[in-house]
Amino acid sequence: MQCSARVRHACHDLSDADGRDNSALFSFSLGAACTAEWYCHAFLLRVVFTFVIYLCINFARVVFVSGVTRVAWKKLNTGYFAYRATCQRNGAHTYEREELADKVEAMLSTMQLKGAVFIAIAFGLQLPWIIALNEFVTNLVYGSA
How many angstroms separate the CA atoms of 87 and 27, rounded? Predict the structure, then answer.
């Protein structure tokens, strides 16, 4: 191997008589490679966590609002209900009013229970990312490789 004439040090300055490198170049390059690998893993982990947290929070928000509206339906209700029904060609209803009233009453009796379940599900959707984030943060190792 030829050395450049412009370099102030000779090629053999970093090695011993047997040609083994005695410099700290290997440990520095190993540290740099480990740091680069850590940065890549940290970036990937940050992207994945950001995406998962975004999905969990927004999905839980929709479920939570659905639950709150079911729990507080009496305060939000105007007293009028809209419904879909079938009718005959002349506009005559295909159902009995008493049967419809019974079905509406049955639906309203379970409305608050379903709302409470939705709220519990919304809070439960937050647990996976909170637990995972807590686990990763406590197990992260900050230090030299």
Answer: 83
